[in-house]
Structures are given as structure tokens and as C-alpha cells.
Amino acid sequence: MGKPLVYEILEKPATSCVIGICSAIWFYIQKKNIGYAHVGLSYETAIQGHYWRIITSAFSHISVIHLVFNMSALWSLGVVETLDHMGLGFQFYLQYTLVLVLFSGFLVLGSYHILINRFKLEYFRRVTAVGYSCVVFGWMTILSVKHPSSKFNLFGFLSLPISFAPFESLIFTSIIVPQASFLGHLSGIVVGYSIAWGLIHGMNNYWAVSILGWTALVFVLSLKKSGTFELDFLEIESVTDPSVRFLAAGNGRTLRMSALTPGGSEMV
């Protein structure tokens, strides 16, 4: 018999929290009838200053199947939190989850930029991606390098050698789920190898907290500037006075969805 669920949750606290957050966001999205265009990441919205979408797109899922697939895979990969003796563990997991979320988002946007401006593929200008798959593929790749003898379990019955899992899963999802973002998944794999091979290294609690703080600041300021949400407690002064001042909260936040030109959507 396996371990009781409560013990596994205690062994994987960060993984459990991420699954809880993504599930809660999915529930909120369903309740409020929010779509890809409202939370997803696209090249067009990024160049308009909607930088907050790098974060919201990663933790948002529109389809319940998409959510279950990603969270099931993430639960299996949570073994990273238990591998302190291999230089991984809880702190490593938290620090490099932040790196995977940000860097894979930047890499996706960079890929779109090249495809649009170099190869004139205007389709990618409005392709909107959502989902945690970039991070899932990143951890899958890191584990395949750091702990190649482990197994990758999906849905509790499908078991793959972790050393082949990243590219097997990339091909599998591209065939089975046509809407799956090949570029998004590939970006996660690239960032994962960069971390596993030491090309991206040196993260510690100081840098993680600093990056998290700057990310939160850019998130709030870009959210305010984009006008998607009315943040009554935050007022941005004119360019001549770049200070930011906080005012007393008004009647709370009012959601105002901006009209976007219809485009494609991808699940990552």
C-alpha cells in the first residue's frame, strides 16, 4: 500500500500549494466565465504592456482536462522536494519554479517575436496561451538530468522512464491535443535543461525574494497601466512626477474586460 495522502502532502508542501492555487483559479475562472483572452499570454498583449499576463497565464486553466493533466503530472514531479541529498529539495523547488515561470514566458514571447518579425508569420501575433505546462515540462527535464532513474507517473497508471519523458510527452501532447502549445512546452524543456546543466544557476533565498518582489511590483503596475482592472488604491503619477502613492481604497476592484481582437488559443 502507498503512503496516506496526508503524508504525501506534507512531503510535497510546495507542490501541494501550487496545485491548490491552480485549482482555485480554475474554479474562479469557471464561476466568472473568464476566457483565454482575459488571462492568457499573447505577443500582441505583451507589446501593449500587459506584462502581468506572464503570471496569470501560467496559473490559469480554462479546461478541466487541461488542469487535471497538468496537476497530475506536477504531483508526480513533486518528488523533487524530497531530494535534498541530491542538491534539490524544497528551497530549490521554490526558487527554480519562479525561474521556470518567468524565463519560459520570456522565451515564448521571444519565439513569437522571431516568428512574426523574421518569418512574417502573423498568426502568432494573437495566439493566446494559458496553463502550467511550461513549468511541468521544465521540472520533468530537470528531473530527467538530475535523477534519471526515477519514473514519471501520470494519472496514477501511466509510468514512463523520466529520462525520456520530456520529449515523449512533447510528442504525445502535440498529437493527442492539437491545441497544446508546442512552443510553450519546448520553452519549458529548454529552460529546464539550462537549469539542470548549470547554465542558469546561483539562485538563493535572497535572489528569489528579490526577483519575487520586482515581479510583484511589475505585475501590479502593468495591471494598473493596462486598465484591465481598476485598482482604486493605486494611482500612478504623470511622467514628470514618477513617484507612486497609495490612496485609501475606494469601493474595491472592478473587473473591466478589454475588447481584444479574436485570435487563436493554446494550452501550455
Automatic annotation (TrEMBL):
Keywords: Membrane, Transmembrane, Transmembrane helix. It is a multi-pass membrane protein. The keyword Nuclease does not apply. Belongs to the peptidase S54 family. It holds the Pfam family Rhomboid. This is RHOMBOID-like protein 13. GO terms for molecular function: serine-type endopeptidase activity. The chain crosses the membrane at residues 50-73, 93-116, 123-142, 154-175, 182-200, 206-223. One of its GO terms (cellular component) is membrane. It is found in: Membrane. Residues 49-200 form the Peptidase S54 rhomboid domain. The keyword Membrane applies.
